[in-house]
Specification:
Layout lengths: L1 E5 L4 H11 L3 E6 L13 E4 L3 E4 H4 L5 E5 L5 H13 L2 E4 L13 H7 L4 E6 L13 H8 L19 H24 L3 E6 H8 L1 H10 L16 E5 L4 E5 L3 H10 L4 H4 L6 H6 L1 H12 L4 H10 L4 E2 L4 H10 L5 E3 L7 E3 L23 H9 L1
Parallel strand pairs: 1-2, 1-6, 2-5, 6-7, 7-8
Antiparallel strand pairs: 3-4, 9-10, 10-11, 12-13
Length: about 375
């Protein structure tokens, strides 16, 4: 399967990397300046041959080939059109209407390639929001996510990663897979459109449903959960520990292991709704018990009885935990660059992801791709 990747930055490249991991041949089309993320540094990986490479770019461009095409150059534009005509899948995230200027929009491509699965990604859709630039931070702000993030009496905060770019990429990859299955049955391609704001409204799940179904407008609660308690960091004798009791059985186990089984028998705390109504009273009892032992001691004891809890790691700690649990989070392609990247998170019993190529230098495959397209 050939994927023509006309996308840049994060959402589109993440989607095409997911497809590449599963065996697709992905040709990454870059302008003369390369993908924007090549300049988003530090952090960098220092390479003797290519200098400092932005780790942001490395994180989303594994298993691809790169060709540089200048759409203002007639020969390059002709090459881009030939690529689109041969592609099984085309992914782009220009502003809506941007590809039409070059005869690379869905209608133009499908005229010569009717079976193409064409996926357009934008920030705010192709209707009223077509003129708006699609940056994740804007969508975190405008969707309501930032209004939910931070302390109740503090300012709104963004998430520490571009969550809606990543989720949009995942939705796009899923949609492409579904459209390819449809094409397999019918021979028909189709146009897929998704945008960061629609994904954000969907991805806020219980928070947006609270509003659309019950008229309840969610608000910042720091690390607390509006519907589950306890479900937050809690201080111990020497540091904080995430403690979760997502149902009544877990709460009974938690009360017992903390040495206060009567807490679970108290009618004020019997159900989740009761615990939410008496959050302050329970919290004081939990904190009093947790203060008697260290975070590690409580982590061992609480985990042993099947109640969810865990430390608050930095990113290196998260990677170390994945390694400790045998998840093998870091992979390297068997090429000369052997750049370390993060493993595809899905395990398949019959068709596992493969890691064939390190993220390519800009235009690394231009000559090979041009020769193939002209052949």
């Amino acid at each position: 399967m050939l994927v023509a990747d006309f996308s840049r930055v994060l959402a589109g490249p993440y989607a095409t990397m997911m497809l590449a991991d599963l065996g697709a041949t992905v040709i990454k089309v870059e302008g003369p300046g390369g993908d924007d993320t090549r300049t988003w540094k530090p952090p960098v990986l220092t390479d003797p041959e290519h200098g400092d490479i932005a780790t942001y770019y490395l994180s989303i461009n594994r298993n691809k080939r790169s060709i540089v095409l200048d759409f203002t150059d007639p020969d390059d534009l002709a090459t881009a059109r030939r690529l689109a005509q041969r592609a099984d899948v085309l992914v782009e995230n220009m502003k809506p209407g941007g590809m039409a200027k070059f005869g690379l929009d869905h209608a133009s491509v499908a005229e010569h390639n009717p079976s193409v699965v064409y996926c357009s990604i934008s920030g705010f859709g192709s209707r009223g929001g077509a003129h708006l630039p699609g940056y994740d931070l804007l969508v975190q702000a405008t969707s309501g996510l930032m209004s939910l993030t931070g302390e109740a009496d503090g300012p709104p905060y963004r998430a520490g990663v571009a969550v809606f770019d990543v989720l949009t990429g995942l939705h796009a990859a899923l949609a492409i897979s579904s459209a390819l299955r449809h094409r397999e049955r019918t021979g028909q391609g189709q146009l897929l459109e998704t945008n960061l704001l629609s994904v954000a409204v969907s991805a806020l799940v219980n928070q947006t449903e609270a509003y659309v179904a019950a008229g309840a407008v969610p608000h910042r609660m720091g690390n607390e959960h509006p519907s589950v308690f306890p479900y937050q960091p809690m201080p111990t004798k020497d540091g904080e520990l995430i403690v979760i009791a997502a149902n009544d059985a877990q709460f009974r186990k938690l009360a017992t292991v903390l040495g206060d089984p009567a807490m679970a028998e108290d009618p004020r705390f019997a159900t989740m709704s009761d615990r939410i109504s008496h959050r302050a009273e329970i919290e004081q009892r939990l904190l009093a018990r947790l203060a008697t032992r260290t975070a590690q001691e409580w982590y061992t004891a609480i985990t042993e009885v099947g109640v969810p809890c865990g430390p608050i790691n930095s990113v290196d700690g998260g990677v170390a935990l994945a390694e400790e649990l045998g998840l093998e989070p870091v992979v390297r392609a068997p090429d000369a660059a052997a750049v370390p990247t993060v493993r595809n998170p899905v395990t398949y019993s019959a068709t596992p992801p493969s890691y064939r190529r390190s993220p390519p230098p800009v235009g690394a495959d231009s000559a090979e791709i041009r020769s193939w397209l002209n052949g």
